[in-house]
UniProtKB/TrEMBL annotation, chain A:
<comment type="similarity">
    <text>Belongs to the binding-protein-dependent transport system permease family.</text>
</comment>
<feature type="transmembrane region" description="Helical">
    <location>
        <begin position="209"/>
        <end position="234"/>
    </location>
</feature>
<protein>
    <submittedName>
        <fullName>Carbohydrate ABC transporter permease</fullName>
    </submittedName>
</protein>
<dbReference type="Pfam" id="PF00528">
    <property type="entry name" value="BPD_transp_1"/>
</dbReference>
<keyword id="KW-0812">Transmembrane</keyword>
<dbReference type="InterPro" id="IPR035906">
    <property type="entry name" value="MetI-like_sf"/>
</dbReference>
<feature type="region of interest" description="Disordered">
    <location>
        <begin position="1"/>
        <end position="20"/>
    </location>
</feature>
TrEMBL record, chain B:
<feature type="transmembrane region" description="Helical">
    <location>
        <begin position="21"/>
        <end position="44"/>
    </location>
</feature>
<dbReference type="Pfam" id="PF00528">
    <property type="entry name" value="BPD_transp_1"/>
</dbReference>
<feature type="transmembrane region" description="Helical">
    <location>
        <begin position="77"/>
        <end position="99"/>
    </location>
</feature>
<feature type="transmembrane region" description="Helical">
    <location>
        <begin position="270"/>
        <end position="290"/>
    </location>
</feature>
<dbReference type="InterPro" id="IPR000515">
    <property type="entry name" value="MetI-like"/>
</dbReference>
<keyword id="KW-1003">Cell membrane</keyword>
<feature type="domain" description="ABC transmembrane type-1">
    <location>
        <begin position="74"/>
        <end position="289"/>
    </location>
</feature>
TrEMBL record, chain C:
<dbReference type="InterPro" id="IPR050490">
    <property type="entry name" value="Bact_solute-bd_prot1"/>
</dbReference>
<feature type="signal peptide">
    <location>
        <begin position="1"/>
        <end position="25"/>
    </location>
</feature>
<dbReference type="InterPro" id="IPR006059">
    <property type="entry name" value="SBP"/>
</dbReference>
<keyword id="KW-0762">Sugar transport</keyword>
<comment type="function">
    <text>Part of a binding-protein-dependent transport system for a sugar.</text>
</comment>
<comment type="similarity">
    <text>Belongs to the bacterial solute-binding protein 1 family.</text>
</comment>
<keyword id="KW-0732">Signal</keyword>
Length: 304, 298, 414
């Protein structure tokens, strides 16, 4: 638990606030030292993935997973993107990329829209019985998805949405709802109550307060919600494959086929390249969201 | 909040809020209550591949509790769950607190800690299976550096395998916890810090006695996110160990899945998932009621 | 790249046929879990033959050895949006879908093309039948009962390559002394269960196998004959102690590289040796029936089922697909690529390699027996595999305990 000691020591001196002036203080050495060490642990697997994806198969069979590639090849990346076969279709991950986008964008927007309104209603406009439904929702977060496969098949069949994009978006919104609602509810509840009261006195209504007061103040939590949803939906395999047809299959189906092909030689380099390619979209979102996080601080400063 | 004079009929109080909550109510009732009731009902049948209404009483439950694999799964879930909960919280919070100290390169560090979350559990399991493989992973590397007796082989050791999974799970998931905590820390007023500083309260005390209590809602969210992920843990185990060696890393969700689809015994799978749900309900419902129901209308 | 050009060619030929104004190409979606190189090449043969009839094969491949794919297929069928045809293993996996009336019967095609006469062994067609109607098309036979040995490993250990299981066990100490893992075994229940059943058939014999799995005779399963099989499994457990792999092909790779002496795995393992450029007899040896007398093989494999569809043209295309899958030409082309054996006795596989020829001889001699997939339910099979996973992982689990639990499972089997 070196992390713990580092933090308490560092916390013991120097106030929180403006950028510290002494850059080489003991506090900073420990703080940055700790962060650096932790960062290495987090980066190690990525290093192995990248290095592996740039090696040829003969080099991989040698088994030195940490060794940098002797001869760099981009062939695995090309193969993963455009050539790897899923049964008879040999166009790699590219086949499902647009489907993944078509699934992810509406699902993320719809699920976050519903959940943020839910959370807002629960935090600020409590009505009788609301907590019952909310408790059910929270319990719902603990149900393994696999258990719900058949009931959902039946529900979708009955409302005529089985096998459609709309049906899948609905499923993603349903399963995203418990956690997201909780996220927003608790975030809104932690905002100063006076703001809400003041807006009420000014005569603002349900939607007015939501749009003009709550939304602008909740940038960081929206970022977290987007991170959770993009990652979850983009990486989803089970729902995408069970509730749609092959012409709507997301790219995780191809990823699964590349990674999980049990017969034949495992091409670790292609697996790793495919993995990294699939992860690029969520990663991109993380990079962009970093800026928004910083703006979240600004939003916090305004409210004071 | 709407005043009585404005809307005399109680049904129409907070009308907009009620309308806005329709999707939530429907989801809760139709999908979660409906689907769960359906599952529980069919756990009393001997349904195989397709749900069939053929009542067999508690047979599935008797079999479940006499199956060694199920018992091991439960035990593993407890060990894994307790450790995962504690470590996720502690590491997540410490990372967030460090990043919140106006450090340089915050973006870089945050992205580094968060990126594993972009990778699915399947991939996480695969990578860590590799890193922990004794023949070419960490053990192999340390040994080839000259330390011949070095042993680090968690995935093939029945006693240690669950920790091997924990390492991978923490790697994948702590980034998100950190982000949640960071979002919480960012929602705390700058003035509170200023006031604490003026009063001469040390930073660690400010965290412990002022900031952490204020973060309670965020902690609740985090707790639910971590706990629900623990109960549902499946893909990671499948990808990393396949439940092995033997049954040493089996988890309940995997038992459910395997018997539902691999063994084509829906009844058995439903019985196992009912047990999982039942324990969740026993823990969650009273707590949720206290947590979410106790505060009056604002 | 090769497959890609094949697909391109297929598309082109399909287009050409459509242009030629044939009855009109019907798209038929076919789901399966054949996704590795060799498997995909084999599927391409089926698709090529089907497209040649003027229809179009829409490929719906889902990887993951069937465990991933099957729930998806079942959901699709019960969700009321079925595919045109779908793979299952020989045996009882699709039993209930047939009983629920979701699958169409193929009686007309079967009668017209005399399936009863051509399918060998006949038990395969029986497995497709319910109440006298035919519901599936068997396409191949995969046998489990092989022992693959690394010639290099035995040379390194200074002992001669064994010719049966007992010699292999006897050679284990020498292998271990040379730092070689005697038996490569992926630590997954299905592989351990497969090994156990191979031992049961090789050491316990055909009668015991049937008593246990067909008659579900708990007494035989707990008896003295069976104890011998458990003793052999105990040997195997010790020999595989240091086999730190999970996937079967990683285990095969240990044999290929000479890090392990041998592996008991189905005939699909042969593809691995071929890909690695090894030659049967020179680099590796293969012992059918583990080299024991009266080698018998089980007739597991894959079948295709055809869900009931409302569309008239698609239903017709389904029949054409069923017929194409069994045609002698397709059978040869498909099975050579797949590394499996054809389901017809009247086709000639002269191009098969030495190991496969051994298997074909056993098949021709009629030394075949139903696989466990056909005899016991998937539920029982899962329980059995669970037990084996535990037995092989826990070196301290006694043989007697394991046998007692085995007898319990057989006693309550369905």
């Amino acid at each position: 638990m070196s992390v713990a000691t580092a933090d308490t020591t560092s916390a013991a001196d120097g106030p929180r606030g403006r950028k510290p002036r002494r850059t080489l203080s003991r506090r900073n050495i420990i703080l940055y030292g700790t962060l650096f060490v932790v960062a290495v642990y987090y980066l190690l697997p990525l290093y192995v993935m990248v290095v592996t994806s740039l090696k040829g198969m003969p080099e991989i069979r040698l088994g030195h997973i940490f060794a940098p590639p002797v001869e760099i090849t981009f062939q695995p990346w090309v193969k993963a993107w455009a050539e790897a076969c899923t049964g008879l279709n040999c166009d790699g991950l590219s086949r499902g990329f647009w489907n993944s986008v078509r699934i992810t964008v509406p699902s993320v927007i719809l699920s976050i829209a519903i959940a943020s309104v839910n959370g807002y209603a629960l935090a600020n406009w409590r009505f009788k019985g609301a907590e019952v439904f909310f408790t059910i929702l929270i319990v719902g977060a603990f149900i393994p998805y696999q258990v719900m496969l058949y009931p959902i098949v039946i529900i979708l069949r009955e409302i005529g949405l089985y096998g459609t994009l709309t049906g899948l978006v609905l499923v993603h919104s349903i399963f995203g709802m418990p956690i997201l609602t909780l996220l927003f509810r608790n975030y809104f509840a932690s905002l100063p109550e006076e703001l809400f009261k003041a807006a009420r006195v000014d005569g603002a209504g349900f939607w007015g307060i939501y749009l003009r007061i709550m939304l602008p103040m909740s940038l960081p939590i929206f970022v977290v919600a987007v991170i959770i949803q993009i990652t979850g939906i983009w990486n989803d395999f089970l729902f995408g494959v069970v509730y749609t047809k092959p012409d709507l299959y997301p790219m995780t189906v191809q990823l699964n086929n590349i990674v999980n092909s049990v017969q034949g030689v495992k091409e670790y380099n292609v697996n790793m390249a495919a993995t990294l390619l699939t992860g690029l979209v969520p990663l991109l979102v993380y990079f962009v969201s970093g800026k928004l996080f910083v703006r979240g601080i600004a939003a916090g400063a305004v409210k004071g | 909040m709407r005043s009585q004079s404005e809307r005399p009929n109680p049904l129409f109080r907070n009308l907009n809020a009620k309308i806005a909550s329709i999707p939530m109510v429907l989801t809760a009732l139709v999908v979660f209550v409906g689907g769960t009731a359906w599952t529980v009902l069919y756990s009393f049948t001997n349904s195989k591949l397709l749900p069939r209404w053929k009542f067999v009483g508690l047979d599935q439950y008797e079999r479940l509790w006499s199956t060694p694999r199920w018992l091991v799964s439960i035990e593993n879930l407890f060990i894994y769950g307790a450790l995962s909960l504690v470590f996720s919280f502690v590491i997540g919070f410490l990372l967030a607190a460090m990043l919140d100290r106006k450090i340089r390169f915050e973006d870089t560090f945050r992205t580094i800690f968060l990126y594993p979350f972009a990778l699915s559990f399947i991939v996480t399991g695969l990578v860590w299976q590799w890193l922990l493989n004794p023949d070419f992973g960490v053990q192999h590397v340390v040994r080839s550096l000259g330390w011949e007796s070095f042993t680090f082989n968690p995935l093939y050791d029945r006693e240690l395998v669950i920790y091997g999974i924990l390492i991978a799970a923490l790697w994948q998931g702590t980034g998100l916890i950190m982000c949640l905590m960071l979002a919480g820390l960012r929602s705390i007023d700058e003035d509170i810090w200023k006031a604490a500083r003026v009063d001469g309260i040390p930073v660690w005390k400010t965290y412990l006695f002022i900031v952490i209590p204020m973060l309670r809602p965020v902690f609740v969210t985090t707790l639910v996110i971590i706990a629900s992920a623990i109960v549902k843990v499946y893909d990671l185990v499948v990808a990393q160990t396949g439940g092995g060696p033997g049954h040493a890393s089996e988890v309940p969700a995997k038992y459910v899945y395997d018997y539902m689809f691999l063994g084509q015994n829906l009844g058995q799978g439903f019985a196992a998932s009912t047990m999982m749900l039942l324990s969740v309900v026993i823990v969650i419902v009273p707590w949720a009621y206290l947590e979410f129901g106790r505060r009056g209308r604002r | 790249m090769r497959y890609r050009s094949v697909t391109a060619m297929l598309a082109a030929s399909a287009a050409a046929l459509a242009f030629a104004g044939s009855a009109g190409a019907t798209d038929l979606e076919v789901t399966h879990w054949w996704t590795s190189g060799g498997e995909a090449a084999a599927v391409a043969e089926l698709a090529k033959a089907f497209d040649a009839t003027g229809n179009h094969w829409v490929d719906g491949a889902i990887a993951g050895s069937g465990d991933t794919a099957r729930p998806i297929m079942v959901s699709r069928i019960t969700g009321g949006d079925p595919m045109g045809a779908t793979q299952f293993n020989h045996g009882r996996q699709a039993e209930e879908l047939v009983e629920a009336g979701l699958m169409r019967n193929l009686d007309a095609v079967a009668a017209k093309e005399n399936w009863k006469g051509v399918i060998n062994p006949p038990s395969l067609l029986e497995g497709c039948m319910l109440d006298g109607h035919v519901y599936c098309v068997p396409v191949n036979i995969h046998a489990w009962q092989w022992l693959w040995l690394s010639n290099k490993a035995f040379a390194d250990a200074g002992v001669k390559v064994p010719t049966n299981w007992n010699e292999f066990v006897a050679a284990a100490p020498a292998l271990e002394k040379a730092g070689i893992t005697p038996l490569a075994l992926g630590k997954q229940g299905w592989q351990e269960g497969g090994l156990f059943n191979n031992l049961l058939l090789a050491i316990g014999g055909k009668d015991l196998y049937l008593k246990v799995y067909q008659d579900k005779d708990a007494e035989a399963a707990g008896g003295a004959e069976m104890a011998k099989v458990f003793k052999a499994a105990d040997d195997a457990r010790k020999m595989a102690k240091n086999s730190n792999v999970q996937d079967w092909n990683q285990a095969t790779n240990l044999v290929i590289t000479g890090k392990a002496g041998g592996q008991s795995m189905g005939d699909w393992a042969q593809g691995e040796f071929q890909v690695a450029g090894q030659v049967a007899g020179k680099d590796y040896s293969c012992l059918v029936g583990l080299g024991m007398p009266n080698a018998t093989i089980t007739t597991g494999g894959d079948s295709f089922y055809f869900p009931k569809l409302a569309d008239e043209a698609k239903s017709k295309a389904q029949e054409e697909l069923a017929s194409v899958m069994l045609s002698p030409k397709t059978q040869v082309a498909f099975n050579l690529k797949k590394g499996s054996m054809p389901v017809r006795g009247d086709v000639d596989l002269t191009t098969a390699n030495d190991c496969m020829k051994k298997g074909l001889e056993v098949l021709k001699a009629g030394n075949v027996i139903k696989s466990t997939d056909e005899l016991i339910s998937p539920d029982t099979n899962t329980q059995f595999n669970d037990l084996m996973a535990e037995f092989f992982a826990k070196q301290d689990m006694s043989v007697e305990d394991a046998q007692k639990r085995f007898a319990d499972i057989i006693g309550s089997a369905d």
